[in-house]
């Protein structure tokens, strides 16, 4: 009998502390999971915007007339948002190697162009800008 009266409930206190620690651990794990899920969702949306902008740039690259007489900014509407591609800018031009033609206006040149595409997400308003460089062999006089 005396043994029962000497017990002061230490086991209950230790069990409650352990239960509290496990609860705090579970709550912090749930919070970290939701934050990570938001980060992954944002990265996925960012990559989707980048892919759409890259797609529009590749469409422009497939049409060499955009480089001969650029008309201005190209805007395209998509479900993700609006893609605006600026006028291609020629940043370098050099005579193509291996050509010996006398008339300088028909000698091909290797022109380096820069295209800049900006996409604005219609849902969130997020803006992504993508720069793409390309080198094209063209007749002389296409790169100012």
Describe the structure.
This protein has 3 helices and 5 strands, in the order H-H-H-E-E-E-E-E. The chain has one domain (2-139). The chain has helices at residues 2-6, 10-61, 65-68, and strands at residues 74-77, 81-85, 89-95, 108-121, 127-139. The model has no long low-confidence stretch (mean pLDDT 82). 42% of the residues lie in helices and 30% in strands.
CA radius of gyration: 31 Å
Estimate percent helicity: 40-55%
Q: How would you spell out the order of helices and strands? A: HHHEEEEE
Got a strand count? 5
Beta-strand fraction estimate: 25-35%
On the 0 to 100 scale, the average pLDDT is 82
Brief rundown of the structure:
The protein is α+β, with helices and mostly antiparallel strands and 144 residues long.
Protein topology:
Blueprint: H1 2-6, H2 10-61, H3 65-68, E1 74-77, E2 81-85, E3 89-95, E4 108-121, E5 127-139
Antiparallel strand pairs: 1-2, 2-4, 3-4, 4-5
Features:
5 strands; five-stranded antiparallel β-sheet; alpha+beta; 144 residues
């Amino acid at each position: 009998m005396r043994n029962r009266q000497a017990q002061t409930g230490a086991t209950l206190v230790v069990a409650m502390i352990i239960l509290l620690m496990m609860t705090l651990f579970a709550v912090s794990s749930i919070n970290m999971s939701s934050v990570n899920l938001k980060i992954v969702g944002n990265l996925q949306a960012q990559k989707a915007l980048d892919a759409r902008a890259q797609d529009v740039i590749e469409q422009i690259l497939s049409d060499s007339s955009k480089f001969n007489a650029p008309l201005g900014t190209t805007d395209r509407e998509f479900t993700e948002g609006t893609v605006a591609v600026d006028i291609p800018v020629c940043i370098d031009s050099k005579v193509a190697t291996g050509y010996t033609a006398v008339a300088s206006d028909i000698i091909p040149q290797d022109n380096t162009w820069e295209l800049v595409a900006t996409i604005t997400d219609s849902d969130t308003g997020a803006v992504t800008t993508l720069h793409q460089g390309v080198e094209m062999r063209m007749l002389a006089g296409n790169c100012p």
